[in-house]
Amino acid sequence: MDPVEETLDLSNKKLKKLNKPTPHESQVTTLILDDNELLRLDSIDSFTKLQKLSAVRNQLLRMYGVCRLHSLHTLNLSHNGILTIEGLKELVNLRWLGLAGNSIKVIAFASLLFLK
Q1: Which phi-psi region, left, alpha or beta, contains residue 97 (left: φ > 0; alpha: ψ -120 to 50)?
Q2: Are 33 and 8 in contact (CB under 8 A)?
Q3: What superkingdom does the record give (predicted)?
Q4: I want to staple 34 with a disulfide (CB 3.0 to 4.6 A). Which of 19, 38, 43, 56 is the partner?
Q5: How many CA atoms lie within 13 A of 67 on its CB side?
């Protein structure tokens, strides 16, 4: 990865698991995980500078882990199997949230107060 590169695109890699990033990868500001087979976002909080996260068309059931991404302002988890909107209260910089095409049953409204 180039030292000035801020985006890590891991889309269409048939990933079933998100591995812990290298020290350089952990500094990216944009992470694209679209079109994989991810069930969970393990190690997502290792991406300490993340501002934009996209994990569209995976097999995610929960939003677990994103609550620790305090710099996140754009989150797209559309077209997964997410049932509950959770853990957004801590994301005070979040401005855009995409959850279309999920099976959402429960929404913690307090989590959505920061969205503009």
Answers
A1: beta
A2: no
A3: Eukaryota
A4: 56
A5: 11
pLDDT digits (tens, 9 = 90+) for 63-98: 888 999 999 999 999 999 999 888 888 888 999 999
DSSP structural state of residue 101: T
Q: Which amino acid is present at 31? A: L
The label of the residue with tokens 């401005």 reads 95
- Domain spans of the chain, in order of start: 1-116
Given phi > 0 = left and psi -120 to 50 = alpha, else beta, which region is 73? alpha
Mean pLDDT over the full length of the chain? 89
- What DSSP designation does 8 have? E
- Helix H segments across 2-82? none
Does CATH number 3.80.10.10 belong to domain 1-116? Answer: yes
Q: Which helix (H) or strand (E) holds 112?
A: none
Amino acid at 9: D
- The per-residue pLDDT for range 25-64, each reduced to its tens digit, is 999 999 999 999 999 998 999 999 999 999 999 999 988 8
